[in-house]
Amino acid sequence: MLGILDYNLTEREFEKFKKLIYEKSGINLTNQKKELLKSRLAKRLRVLDMKGFSDYYNYLINNDPDGSELVLMLDCISTNKTAFFREDQHFEYLRNTILPELVVNKRAKGEYTFRVWSAGCSSGEEPYTLAIILSEFLNPVVSWDAKILATDISTKVLSKAKEGVYEKEKVKTIPPNLLQKYFEKEADNGTVRFHVKSLLKNLVIFSRFNLMEEKYPFKKLFDIIFCRNVMIYFDKQTQGKITNKFYEHLADGGYFLVGHSESLAGVKTNFHYIRPTIYKK
User: Fold this and answer.
1) Averaged over 46-64, what is the pLDDT?
2) Is the pLDDT of residue 187 over 90?
3) Which of 104, 185, 222, 252 is the most buried (most CB within 10 A)?
4) Domains of the chain in sequence order
5) Is the pLDDT of residue 76 over 90?
């Protein structure tokens, strides 16, 4: 079986994969990503015992009727860097400004539902962080109809997220009192892991979803949408298309947050700018 270095990805093949990946996921690969794509897709070529990238491309186009191999390919190229309480300024703003404002408005109208979407949730750290904050703020959270939808295009990271088990290194950014409250500690042969407790798990619904879908199937509007460090993989046209979908599915007065390396500058949108990376409908 061939190794990674034995495969050659021609410019023509690279362009074909770039086009396919863009059409199916919105991810806009630059020419600098050729070697990265080559090394990551070579893993699938080895698994399928294929001789070259053209064989793999043809397989994706002609022999993948249910799209299962396409999902595995996108798993290979997805970057899934995340952490609990990552970019903590967002969570401070959520605690101190967004939640107090939305909860007052909801109570005044006699509404006790809360819907949050973590779009691009990766291995679950973001939605579980949101679940912790909601649980602390909406105390007791069980008195509310509160749900967090957590979606990602990668089935691999969603499987990890649903499991809700994290190594000691992964939970070091969680305040000790919250770690003790919302996680069960397990030690096995010197390895320490932390399991998300059912209180948090019950708040989160994990589902595979491609932001490039023509129609978003959500029946209820969201109060808050987090889509952080996802837009950087899209060109401006795709950013605009997806941002407008988010706008449609956000309740009036709802908030939309992007990553600290992102902005909606140059994107035509009806969102009101609140502060860097935070927008409001």
Assistant:
1) 91
2) no
3) 222
4) 4-77 (1.10.155.10), 88-280 (3.40.50.150)
5) no
